[in-house]
Amino acid sequence: MKKFLYTFAFALSLMFAHSAHAALSNEQAESFIKKVTNQGIEEIINANVSLKEKDARFAKLFNEYLDLDFIGKFVLGRYWKTATPKQQSEFISAYRALNIKTWSARFDEFKGKSFVFKGTTPSNSDNQVFVNTTVDMGQGAPAKVVWRVKDTKGELKIVDIIIENVSLAITARNEYTAYIKKNPNGLDALIADLKQKSEQTSR
């Protein structure tokens, strides 16, 4: 069941944006996450549309509302700074393509899940707030899911999700850093690996 939680939480992190013209408030952040989860359930999971249309809706939400530049820079860490503009662009493209296919293919597994909101926690970073939720996965105590919301140029974006104290962004960063370190072709090898996995992933 835990893999279901990771899938649903990551997928929802790619959806919807809400205007914000002032400093990010706790109320704005929580309202945004509530809207995100509701939109995801209604427009994709529970929508009476074809599989092709669901995939298209997921891709649209992913491409429009995930802050890929922010995430990409973070997960590559110091390698983002040393990458060429071409490598940066290719990484973001491969990263996007793989995640769209991976999460869209498994999105329907989360029918019937819902989040309970438990307030917010301030972040040490400017214009960021943590929104605390729990979700009942059917076994054991409800899992804790914390959403990191960032005001990006007047739009709210989710830039990380912490599930049971495990950050998805930090996990990806550690995985990619280890891959680059052990491979003689470094970042180019990682990009090629992401592209290959994307080609092998099917609905």
Structure, explained:
Helix 7 (168-182) packs across helix 8. The longest helix is centred in the middle third of the chain and has 22 residues, at 85-106. This protein has helices at residues 2-12, 26-45, 51-65, 68-76, 78-82, 85-106, 168-182, 186-200; strands spanning 115-122, 128-135, 143-152, 155-163, 166-167. The chain has a five-stranded antiparallel β-sheet. It is an alpha+beta fold and 203 residues long. It contains eight helices and five strands, in the order H-H-H-H-H-H-E-E-E-E-E-H-H.
Topology:
Blueprint: H1 2-12, H2 26-45, H3 51-65, H4 68-76, H5 78-82, H6 85-106, E1 115-122, E2 128-135, E3 143-152, E4 155-163, E5 166-167, H7 168-182, H8 186-200
Antiparallel strand pairs: 1-2, 2-3, 3-4, 4-5
Low-confidence stretches: 14-22
Instruction: Please identify the top-level CATH class.
Output: Alpha Beta
User: How much of the residues is beta strand, in percent?
Assistant: 15-25%
Shape: globular
Number of helices: 8
Number of strands: 5
Using only C-alpha atoms, the radius of gyration works out to: 17 Å
How confident is the prediction overall: mean pLDDT?
82
User: Strands across the major sheet, in which order?
Assistant: 1-2-3-4-5
What is the name of the CATH superfamily? Tgt2/MlaC
How many domains?
Answer: 1
Jot down its keywords:
alpha+beta, 5 strands, Nuclear Transport Factor 2, Chain: A, five-stranded antiparallel beta sheet, 203 residues
Brief characterization of the structure:
By secondary structure, the protein is of the alpha+beta class. Helix content is 55%, strand content 18%.
